Amino acid sequence: MHLQLVPSHDLSLHQRRRRPSFAEMQGIPWLSLLLPAERERAEAELMVVDAGTGDFICRIGKPVTYWFGVVDGLLKMSADNAQGMTMTFTGVPPGGWFGEGTALKREPYRYNIQALRSSVVAGLPLETFHWLLDHSIGFNRFVMNQLNERLGQFIAAREIDRMNNPDLRVARSLAALFNPVLYPGVGDILRITQQELAYLVGLSRQRVNEALSTLQVQGTIRIEYGGLRVLNLAALRSSIH
DNA sequence: TCATTAAATTGTT
DNA sequence: AACAATTTAATGA
Q: Strand C: which residues 220-239 of A lie within 7 A (CB)?
């Protein structure tokens, strides 16, 4: 739980909305699971927006119009509590799709999604989302898998919040971001700055830097300019120190 | 394509 | 929070 440190601007989804490029289509993991006819319709109705740092993709209480996924960049999923603090649930790196729950039930958003840096966000219209659920086995498998993995991640996130050891917090948060099922677009190098990671885990950049150095010495990760490479994902998940 | 400059990111106190 | 050092991105010849 930490204060809001990222500048906030409302994203005018209608103004910066555009058709996805071929390369951006390839960054959408579930398209390849569809049959040709299903895929054709999905690709025809997919939209992308260029979100700048601090832009909101969606806000609590707003009606759901799209099912969103990250093509490029990094988003932050959070909710505000009664004290006006912002509680971060998780970061959403490339390949991550979110909001199935609210989209399924046609409820308003239950959290805020904000860009931590310039990002490309894809959106599938709610109607198309439901059409795919009604027609595509492959799509259903993807969504089910997604829901299942996310459940596990939220449980892990609660444990992370209770941890007092900063090194552990950083390690577990990183492990969550490298989840290959939820975020297939990440691979073994995650483009994230230490400042962005600090925003996500709710620690100072200095402390994150120190934790990352420790993890590097242990051979778990390699620190690179503007990103991190995971050498041992299992160690990230289960490190006890 | 290369050299220079500005901006971003990291390491450290 | 501040600063220096390092890396990348942008610029223009």
A: 225-226
Q: For chain A, which domains are there?
A: 13-156 (2.60.120.10), 165-237 (1.10.10.10)
Nucleotide C8: nearest residue by CA–C1'? A225
pTM of the model as a whole: 0.87
A92 vs A177: CA distance, rounded Å: 7
Our measurement of CA A133 to C1' C5, in angstroms, reads 53
d(CA A139, CA A158) in angstroms, rounded, equals: 29
The per-residue pLDDT for range A57-81, each reduced to its tens digit, is 988 888 899 999 999 999 998 876 6
Summarised one tens digit per residue, pLDDT across range A135-185 is: 999 999 999 999 999 899 888 888 888 888 999 999 999 999 999 999 999
Which one-letter DSSP state was computed for residue A241?
-
